[in-house]
Structure formats: structure tokens, C-alpha cells
Amino acid sequence: MATQDAPLETKLAEVNLNKDMTQDATAIATPTESSSVAASLREKPTGPLKTPIVDPVESASPPPPAALTADQQAKYDALLETVKAWEEIPSSADKGGPVTDSEIMWLSRECLLRYLRATKWVTADAAKRLLGTLAWRREYGVEELTGDHISPENETGKQFLLGYDIAARPCHYLNPGRQNTEPSPRQVQHLVFMVERVIELMVPGQETLALLINFKASKSRSNTTPSISLGREVLNILQTHYPERLGRALIINVPWVVWGFFKLITPFIDPLTRDKLKFNDDMRQHVPPQQLWKDFQGDLDFEYDHSEYWPALLKLCAERHSEQKERWIEAGKNYGESEVHLKGGNATSIYQSPSHTTKSEEKD
């Protein structure tokens, strides 16, 4: 294991080694509490915190999911049967081919319901969008994005995941004033990579994130506001391929030039997302002060140190992903599996009942 003072390259190599070792989740036991990455990160530091926060405060919990009506359940059942019939994912970028295990795991019960809600419960539209997202994930290379590739983008801490809000949503901080690179495809890949990581850190029962954006001016760069074209590209990706994922967006220190930017992109933001944007609110009403960074009016003494934070985040997310994949395999590698079960919540696999047919049984 890398020591606390090891260089970042050594720590990232260790993360990649651990990731390689966890590819076959059938051969891995869920890490014990005493040896897990999560357990080590729960230890309080003597100085400023420099690593992710593992758990929400005890008073924070996701709201219970709304019960489905009979009509909604029927539409969900129809969508599930549709996706189970897919044998290949079509692609215009030579990325077509059979549906993979990771894609089947991604097609969870909650995922299908998110797409149904996003398409106003029109089953055919939800199926079309799901297939489009699967094709996009392949063509964009979402699962191939690595911590090594993204690392240079985050050296200044312009994005980080830290703490949970009052509804146990993981908090995703954006600090445009810490911009350290020129516009490039990797800047967008950086955001996609971080959204994928924040999803891995969601607690059982929580499907949305809290976005915290601080437009505090940079001391070294005169203009860190993203371009309109970049903003539109990011919005298109998030609204098309991550529907129903934004729970709250808390935005502070908005200068006039950024207000102008928001006015320009507002027509491209769907009304439901627009209603979730909160400007210059009292942040302590949304995030428990003890888990809210001081720069956002909180009590948390956090210092972004890339050599400490980045390897810790990658290890924690790799551990969470490995645990979820192991539960999915043990339950039968099914379409429409419960995300609450996969994330270690108190719900059992929805395929525990003998009346359910598993993916492997269907293929025999």
C-alpha cells in the first residue's frame, strides 16, 4: 500500500492495481469494515479535512419513493420486457455489439423509472432514450474514462465531492474560479467522470445529487466563465443522459457576466431543472453546517490537496462499485435490479421470489 507521503503517481498506480484486482467481482468478498477504504476515511484528521466524507449526518435521509399507480406499474413492466429483449446496442461509431454485463447492471429498476418519469410515462419514448444513452455511453467511452486521464483537470480542486445535504444527496462542488486548463473535450469528460463518481457515492434510496457552484472570481485568470457552446454541450449531456439526477443546485457569488451566461442558456434548461436552481440562498438551510465547506458559509474546515483527495476518492468509488457489482452478481445478474439492494440498503433483491426469472435462466 502507498504511504501517506507517497507521490500522486504511486497512489494512482495503486488505485489502478486495485481496480484491476476487482474486475471479477465473483472472486472478491465485500471488504470488512475494519479494512475497507470507507472505514479508514471515517477517521477524523488532526488538521483540515483533505479527503471525501463517507456518510451523511444521522438526521439526513432520502425521502421515501412514491408508490407506483397500477398504470405506472404496467408501463414499467412493459419497459422492462422491452429492454430484456435487447440483444445488441446499435451504434454509429463502430461500438455496436451485444449487451454487456455492466449495461445490464446499469438498467436497474430505478434507472428505468427515471427514464419513464423523464418521458412522462410514454414507454416507447423511454425505451428510445435508454437505447440512445447506452449507445452514447459506448461512443463517449464513459466506462473507459480513468482517474489518470482526468487527474490534470482537477489538480486545483475545481470540482470535488464532499459531504451530503439534508436529504442525504452527495454534494458535488464546482469552483469555476479554480479553472486550470483551456477548453477541450477533456473538460467535459471531467464533469462526466465526476457525475459517475457521485452516483457511486449515493446512499441507498437516494438517486439525486446536490450541485454547489461558487462563482468567486479567480485571482490568476480574468475569465473563467464557460463558453456558451461548452455550456450547451454539458446541459445536453446531463439532461439527455442523466435524467432525474439533479436534486438541487445551489449557486453563490454570481457576477453580472455569469448572470448573462445563465440568461443565455436558460432556454436550453428544462423547466423542472430550472426550478431546482437556487441563487444566493442560505446554504446552511440546505446542507448540515458540519458537512458544508466554509467557502459556502459552512463550518467544515476542508482543504483541497490533490495528492490526498484524488487517490482517496478513486479508492472509495472503486470500493463502492465493486461492492455493488458483487451484490448484482450474487442476485443473479438481472435486468431491473433494485439500486437500494445494490447499494447495501435494507431492501433484498427484487428477484428473491421464485416467480422471477433470472437473466441466466432466460438465456438457457
TrEMBL record:
PROSITE patterns: CRAL_TRIO. Residues 17-68, 345-364 are annotated as: Disordered. One of its GO terms (molecular function) is phosphatidylinositol transfer activity. Residues 149-304 form the CRAL-TRIO domain. Pfam families: CRAL_TRIO (PF00650), CRAL_TRIO_N (PF03765). One of its GO terms (cellular component) is cell periphery. Residues 19-38, 346-357 have a biased composition (Polar residues). PANTHER family: GH16843P. This is CRAL-TRIO domain-containing protein. It comes from Venustampulla echinocandica.
